[in-house]
Design brief:
By secondary structure, this protein is of the alpha+beta class. It has 2 domains: about 100 residues, no CATH class; about 90 residues, no CATH class. It is built from 5 helices and 9 strands. The strands form 2 sheets. It has a 7-stranded mixed beta sheet with strand order 3-9-5-6-7-8-4, with no helix packed on it.
Length: about 230
Amino acid sequence: MGDYTYADFKERLTRELWQRDDISALVGPWINAAYMDLGTRNRFWELKIPINFEFPELNVTASTTTADGTPYVNRPAELLHLYTVFDNTNNRKLDKMSPREYFSKTDRSTTAAEGQPTNWTRYGTYLYLWPTPAAAYSLSIYYRRRPAMLSAETDKTVLGAEWDEPTLKLAVIQSLMRLKQYENAMAERADWLAKVQDLIGIYTKEDLDQRHLAKTDPNYHDWGYGHGK
């Protein structure tokens, strides 16, 4: 969770924008727009967010239960993209299928073809299961959520405190562009991109736990390092 409250964000953005009174009603929505962008976009100008980068705070799990004869369950309302579905009752991971493949199953509505689901697909506001569940099965849905908008003055972002300043500065840059202050926005942007790249680099240090990163370079084996490994 961040350190800045919604009130802090608005006060700081107002100060960055020269205390303009004519935008007092806009600073809140502009903060939320930047917060949403940071939590959902994968490109910011020339910066492409690495495909393996995640905000751990936005990866969550929801529990639901199927109903006998009902081919779907509701997807979580704040779902951005879904990682996997696990059937706790039958202790199995369900495989993903495309909507086209699902709707080509002519027996999906046949009572005699009901059983333990093996596949899921996302379509509209539902997660369709195949075969159609024959009973009540407990499911865990692992997914990436959208960040919830800040509304109360004491609300804080779900991201770590290290992302408070990047969230604020992104709001500053976007606000300056809305106000046609393009030169100022460009100056702020260069610094923001550098800081975000550094933060992303810190998150990737968790990859150091992978065993292959600790292996000895084969070129050194003849010199007594890791001999026989």
